């Protein structure tokens, strides 16, 4: 039996939440592909982008290509990156292939053609909508601590041995994949839509990931530090760090309080500060990625 049942329950809840986010993210990601991108022959980056190009050119099933390609890459991942990374990524790949197969079946008509739900000639709208949905799905997947396989594996291995950032490796590979469309199809439309999709879905994913981690740092200069700390702790549960300072002009002693709160708590905390010390000087700034008790867990 665990000596700390609360800690065990918290870990179980975090695991369940990550599992939910991963599956939900993959389902949304594949919805963007099967409902908007594939029916309008729009490529993008990543290994799924390679599989889509193969599908457009030969009709080879995308779900099978995703499994085969990622299976090879996961073998290298197990060798270079360890079994923990490989297991979680492997589950994400299987989930991706499953939702991709289900989505394609649902979007295929009686003639074996993918349904264009926006109507013919609506490639621009399909590109934007598909990319936005893809970005939301990828963002949720990353919030779970998971990756989508494919180029993520390649980038992780390259980053292990070379001083090249993870994101730069992904960017180079994505640009290469999308640019290859011209040599295969001789269609600049596919290349342009591919780059637009890449930009939009990357932006959407960043918004999802960063908005979930945005908190607020408050620096409070006051002469009522002890009372301020007690009132804020009683109302919000947050504690703070207190430094002893001195005004450069008045040379009067003061307390410098450093406080981290969630974004939705900022207004109520500012009102508490105003009630305790109307003369307090406060600076507020957004921070991304506050880790520790009461905030995010390092994954």
- Please give the oligomerization state of what you see: single chain
What structural category arises from helix and sheet content? alpha+beta
Rg on CA atoms, Å: 25 Å
Into which percent range does the helicity of residues fall?
55-70%
Percentage of residues in DSSP E strands: 5-15%
Per DSSP, the total helix count is: 10
Order of helices and strands: HHHHHHHHEHEEHE
Strand segment count: 4
Low-confidence stretches: none
Shape call? elongated
Distance between the termini: 25 Å
**In order across it, which strands form the biggest sheet?**
2-3-1-4
Estimate the mean pLDDT confidence: 82
Number of structural domains = 2
The largest sheet is: 4 strands, antiparallel
Using brief descriptors, characterize the structure shown:
alpha+beta, Alpha-Beta Plaits, single chain, 2 domains, 299 residues
Structural overview:
With 299 residues, the chain is α+β, with helices and mostly antiparallel strands. It has 2 domains: 5-212, no CATH class; 214-288, Alpha-Beta Plaits (2-Layer Sandwich). It has helices spanning 5-37, 46-58, 62-81, 83-106, 123-143, 151-161, 166-185, 188-213, 225-236, 266-276; strands at 214-222, 241-246, 253-262, 281-288. A 4-stranded antiparallel sheet has the order 2-3-1-4. Strand 2 (241-246) and strand 3 form a beta hairpin.
């Amino acid at each position: 039996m665990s000596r700390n049942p609360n800690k065990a329950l918290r870990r179980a809840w975090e695991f369940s939440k990550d599992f939910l986010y991963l599956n939900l993210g993959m389902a949304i990601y594949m919805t963007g592909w099967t409902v908007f991108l594939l029916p309008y022959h729009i490529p993008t980056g990543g290994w799924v982008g390679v599989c889509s190009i193969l599908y457009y050119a030969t009709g080879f099933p995308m779900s099978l290509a995703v499994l085969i390609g990622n299976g090879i890459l996961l073998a290298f991942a197990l060798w270079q990156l360890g079994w923990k990374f490989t297991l979680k990524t492997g589950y994400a790949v299987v989930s991706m292939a499953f939702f991709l197969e289900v989505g394609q079946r649902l979007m295929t008509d009686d003639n074996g053609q993918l349904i264009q739900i926006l109507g013919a000639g609506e490639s621009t709208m399909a590109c934007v909508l598909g990319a936005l949905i893809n970005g939301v799905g990828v963002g949720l997947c990353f919030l779970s601590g998971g990756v989508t396989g494919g180029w993520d594996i390649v980038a992780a291995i390259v980053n292990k041995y070379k001083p090249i950032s993870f994101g730069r490796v992904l960017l180079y590979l994505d640009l290469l994949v999308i640019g290859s469309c011209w040599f295969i199809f001789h269609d600049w439309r596919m290349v342009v839509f591919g780059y637009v999709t890449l930009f939009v879905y990357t932006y959407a994913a960043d918004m999802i990931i960063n908005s979930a981690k945005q908190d607020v740092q408050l620096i409070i200069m006051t002469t009522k530090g002890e009372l301020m700390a007690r009132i804020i702790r009683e109302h919000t549960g947050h504690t703070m760090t207190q430094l002893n300072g001195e005004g450069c002009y008045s040379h009067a002693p003061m307390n410098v309080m450093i406080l981290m709160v969630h974004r939705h708590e900022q207004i109520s905390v500012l009102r508490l500060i105003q009630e305790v010390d109307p003369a307090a000087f406060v600076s507020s700034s957004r921070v991304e990625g506050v880790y520790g008790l009461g905030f995010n867990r390092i994954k």
